[in-house]
Amino acid sequence: MSDVFISYAHSTANQASVVAGALKALGYRVWRDDELPVHRAYSDVIAERLNAAKAVVVIWSADAVRSEWVRSEADKARADRKLVQLSVDGSPLPMPFDQIRCVDMAGWTGDPDDPAWRTVIGSIAELTGAHAAPAAPIRPAAGISICVLPLTNMSLDPEQDYFSDGISEDIITDLSKVSSLAVVARNTAFTFKGRAVDVRKVGRDLGVSHVLEGSVRKSEGRVRITAQLIDCAKGSHIWAERWDRDLTNIFALQDEISQAVVAALKVRLLPAEKVAIQRRGTTNPDAYNLYLMARQKRASGNEGDRHREEEIIRLTRRATKIDPNYAQAWALMARAQTVLRLHFGASGDDGLAAAERALALDPDLAETHAVKAQHLAKRGESDEARAELEMALRLDPDSWEANKQAGLLSFREQRLEDAIRYYRRTTSLMETDFASPMMLVTCYAALGERDDALSAARTTLNRAEKAVAQDQSNGSAMATACVALAFLGQADQARDWARRALLIDPHNMVMRYNLACALSAHLADVEGAVEILGPFFATADEFWLSQAGVDPDFNALRDDARFKAMIDATHERLRAKEAAAAPALTPQGLRRGFDPSRRR
Fold it and tell me: Which of 177, 320, 438, 471 is the most core-located residue (most Cβ within 10 A)?
C-alpha cells in the first residue's frame, strides 16, 4: 500500500502531479485518484487507500475548500492524526482545519530545497516512520515540470493555425513520454493561446518550473520554427533555437525539438522513451498535414455538430488513402464515424472497422480502445467495455474519450459517484465539451448535492451558449442549455430554447431526449416531456431504451401510463425486429441480437 495519499481538487491537478512526482523521487509510494481502476467503485478504492496511507497530504485551494470529497478526506486524516496540509492559493481554510498548521506553497515550482517543501517532507517523514526523507536517486528531475504554450502562427495565412497548433500538440505529446518530466495537459496549455502571458505568473498558477514558447512559419514547402525555454522562477531564457527545414523533414525536426528541450532541462531520457518520441504514425508529410487539419477540427469545433464529424471523416479518409498504415488517422476516423452513427443515426460505416484497423496498427491508442468500448457497451457487453476502458485509461489517464465513456458506463450502472469523477475530468480536459457538465448536473442533483449541481449548470450554460453562438443550428447545444436553464430556475428561457431547438433540428433524437430530461426533472412538465419523447421512442434502439430505464431525470415519468406504453411499445418493436432477423443469424452466433434480459 501507499505511504502517502494526496487529496486535492481537480483544478489543481498539475500541482498535485508535481507534489506526487517530488515525493516519488524521494522514494515514497504515492497514491492519488489518477490511478483509480475502472472495475471498482470509486468510493471503495478511496476509503481503502485513505485508511492504508501513513500520511495524507491535502492540497488546499479555493475549489478544494468547496469540495465535499476533499473536506471528507481531510477530516478522516485529521481524526487518524496523519494530516499534512499545504495551500497553493492562500484560500482561507474551513474549520477545524484552520486550527492546524498549513504550509504556504503558493508559487512552488518543485524546488526540493525550498524551506516550505522541506517542512512538508519533514512531517511526512515523521508520519511514515522515517527520521529523514529517503534518498533521492533522481533528485534533479523531481521538480522539473513544463507548460508548452501554443506556438504562434507567423504564416501570412491565419488558416495555417491548424499546423502550428498541431506542432504544439505533438511537442506536448512527445515530452509527456518522458517519465522524469511533468507536462501540463494540452487543454490547460491552450487556454493561453493568443494571449500575452507573464511567464512567472504562468509558473505560479500552474505550478510548473519551465515554459516553452515559440512560433511557426509555414510557406512554400518550408517551415521555420523558433523556440525558447524559460525558467519561470527567474523569468529568464535558458535556451533558444531556430530551425529552417523543408516540410518533408518535419518529423525529424519535431524529434530534434523535443530532444533539445529534454537536454536543456537536464532530465533523463530513457532509450524506450527516445524510441516512443520518434514514433510518428506516418512518414508521409501530406498524410500528416491532413491529419493535423482533422485533429484541429475536432479540438476547435463544436460538440454536437454533425458537419464537423463529416469533415473529419473526409480528411482522415484522404489521409489513410495516402498512408493506409496511419493508425492515428484511422482512430480519428473511427471516433467521428461512431459519433455520427450512435448520436445522429447516420448510415454508412459505424466506426468499428476503422477502430479495429487502428488497433491492429497500434494497440496503444487509448482513444481507439474507448471507441471500441462504446460499441461494446451499446451491444450490452458491459464487462468487455469495462476491460477496454481500463486499458484506455491505463494508456492515457487524461484521454477525454476514455474518461467520457467511463463516465457513461458508470452512469448506466448507477454508480453516480464514479460517473461524477469521470465527467469532472472530461469537463476539465475539453473546454468545448458542454455534455459532460450537463451530466454532472444530473448526477449531482440525483445525489442531493445541489451546490455542485448549480456550479455544473452554470458551466453547462456558458459552454452551450458559446457553441450556439458559433453554430446557430446546433440543436444538441440548445437542448443542453435548456437543461441548465431549467435547473437554474430560469423556466421561461429554458422553454424558449426548447422551442427553438425543436424548430431548427426536430430530427435530432439525442436532443429530444435531453429536452425531455429538462422538462421532466426540472420544469415539472410531464405532458411536455411525454410529447417530446414520442418520436424518440419510435426510433430508439436497445441502448437508448436501457438509458431511459436508469436515467434519474425520468423518475417523474415512471408512473405515467403514456410513458409506460411507449417503453412497452419500444420493447415490442425491438423484439419483432430481432425475430425478423433471426434466420440471418450465423451458426457461430457472430451477429449479436438484443437480449432484454441484459438491460440494466
Answer: 438
- What is the enclosing helix (H) or strand (E) of 475? helix 475-487
**Average pLDDT rounded to a whole number, residues 419-437:** 87
Q: Is the pLDDT of residue 369 over 70?
A: yes
pTM: 0.66
Helix (H) or strand (E) holding 372: helix 366-378
Query: Three cell numbers at 556?
Result: 417523474
Q: How far apart are CA 387 and CA 103, in angstroms?
A: 41
- What's the distance, CA 299 to chain centroid? 12
The pLDDT tens digits for 475-534 are: 889 999 999 999 999 999 999 999 999 998 888 888 899 999 999 999 999 999 999 999
CA angle 454, 306, 286 (to 5 degrees): 120
CA nearest 108: which of 193, 12, 24?
12
Q: Name the grid cell of 332.
A: 480519428
CB 575 within 8 A of CB 582: no
Residue 154: which residues within 8 A CB-CB, separation 6 or more? Answer: 215, 216, 217, 224
**Closest to 374 in 3D by CA, of 420, 418, 406, 327:** 406
pLDDT score for 32: 77
Q: What is the DSSP string of 78-117?
A: HHTT-EEEEESS-PPPPTTGGGS-EEE-TT----TT-HHH
Residue written as grid cell 471498482? 40
Q: What digits encode the pLDDT tens for the residues 72-123?
A: 888 888 888 889 999 888 788 887 887 788 888 877 777 776 777 877 887 8
Here the contacts of 67-73 (C-beta below 8 Å, separation 24 or greater) are: 67/9, 68/449, 68/452, 69/7, 70/7, 70/8, 70/9, 73/5, 73/7, 73/46
CB 282 within 8 A of CB 325: yes
Cβ neighbour number for residue 451 with a 10 Å cutoff: 10
Q: What are the strands of the beta sheet with 4-7, ordered from one edge?
A: 30-31, 4-7, 55-60, 83-87, 102-104
If you write DSSP's letter for every residue of 264-289 in order, what string do you get?
HHT----HHHHHHHH--S-S-HHHHH
Residue 37 pLDDT exceeds 50: yes
- pLDDT grade for 600, boundaries at 50, 70 and 90: very low
Residue with cell 487543454: 187
Q: What is the mean pLDDT of residues 465-469?
A: 89
Average pLDDT, the chain: 83
Distance in angstroms (rounded) separating the CA atoms of residues 514 and 553: 9
Q: Is 238 helix (H, G, I), strand (E, B) or coil?
A: strand
With both helix axes pointing from N to C terminus, report the angle between 306-322 and 285-300 in degrees, rounded to the nearest 10.
Answer: 170
What whole-number distance in Å separates Cα of residue 128 and Cα of residue 30? 12
